[in-house]
Prior knowledge:
Number of helices: 19
Structural class: mainly alpha
Number of strands: 2
Number of domains: 2
Order of helices and strands: HHHHHHHEEHHHHHHHHHHHH
Strand content: under 5%
Mean pLDDT: 79
Helix content: 55-70%
Strand order of the largest sheet: 1-2
Distance between the termini: 50 Å
Radius of gyration: 25 Å
Amino acid sequence: MTTGRVTARGRLRGLGLALAAMPLVVALTLLPLQFAAALVLGLGVVALIVIEPAFGLYAAVLSVPIQDAVELPAGLTVTQVVVVLAFGAWLLRVLAYPDRRIELGMLTPWLLFLGVQLVSIAFTPYSKLEGLLQWARWVAAFLAFVLTLGTITSPRHAWGLVLAVLLGPSIAALIGLYQFVVPTAAPESFLILGGRFARASATFGKPNPFAGYLNMAWPIALALAFYFLGRHRAEQRADTPRSAPQLEASAVGAAVLALVFGGFGGLLLAGLFASYSRGGWIGAMVGIVTLALVSGRRTAAIAGFGLVFGLLGGLLGVFSLLPPAFTERLATVANNLRIFDAGEVTITPENFAIVERMAHWQAGWRMFRDYPLFGIGVGNFNLAYPDYFVAPWATSQGHAHNYYVHTLAENGIFGLLSYLMLIGGMFRRALLVRRELSGTAWGAVMVGVCGIIAAAAGHNIFENLHVLNLGIQLSGVWGLALVAQRWGTRKHEHILGNRRRGLYRLPPV
């Protein structure tokens, strides 16, 4: 009798599941193949997010290059939807286990910056709706940051995030390099070097945000490559009482990891070169100098030699020993740093981009002069531009081509100060954790995080890198500095012991 009831219940449960799955089966049958595949992939991602919210963070970071692959209503992107889903799944887990400790940090500068943006929206003479839409994009980046702190609870999860941070830009770099060497499908304005190549933009539509995206990854790859290369050399010289097979396996493992991360770094830097973005190159230079200063004396010396070789390359260019197109591009980098009045310059094909950028800087500065405290309102640069443009540059490009000027224009002096507090606080935290974990793989990751923050800050002088959901990638990088600190000071001695034994994985949290 009991067995019969159990069997009947099992059959009813199976019938219920079959009926529930019927609409999905019908949809997969009727939909075109590409939509059916997207539906299956989306359901799989949702299932993984529910099982482990950290996968939602990985998916959000990896989705940045393909965020426009599917058009969603209300201007939403796939990346934003994934962030919200992952945050919701994590929040439900937090509510289900209220006794578990949650370690969050650096929320004050975040909330201060978001609060200043809300005040700017409240007092804007332009559109409050546009302000709220832009504010929502920053909220998505904030949720990604909180999600990083909430879901990356072990070194295993953290390594997954490191790989996601490197893998997405690497895929974009491959696409960009293909565009560089096969320029036939590129817009005419992207053609360079006599039309033989084209500026790479991958899936971002423009080379500058593509270069900014790569600047948010390669410093970690290079820092880890040099770290594991050093470990490989140390293992070869090791005199610890381990057996020869152990020493050989450890040295080989370090060499393989050095090659893997070095491959990531080389690919990303090649893509950055292919973008032909002067702002991106300047950001990369700032990142390299920061890597050298943060890493220590030896790398600082290496950077010095690199600078000497760079200057030598410039001299060779002067004597026409380098391709003229490349040296001309390098020469215009200095012009990007020159301040002038865009309304009094004769426009030529050679200076068009530089003068246009300066015109947007001047328009942003004029907005700030009229609204110095809280700006014209976040998200309203385009709407205000016709009132402040420098003739003949009457068409806005969407932002001030300088995020600091852009922030002054939209959020005023309080907005700029709160933004600088945010990125300065993140840099300081990464630097402190790097010192605590010196000599470990995670110490190297922190060197890379410092390099990314510096490269993005340098690139932001000529661009707005907080567009196209690039903030999701940056939030994940910032979050690494806080989650790594969890196995920092109180376990430092244990970490040093692992280092002496040639182990690279940190102890579990």
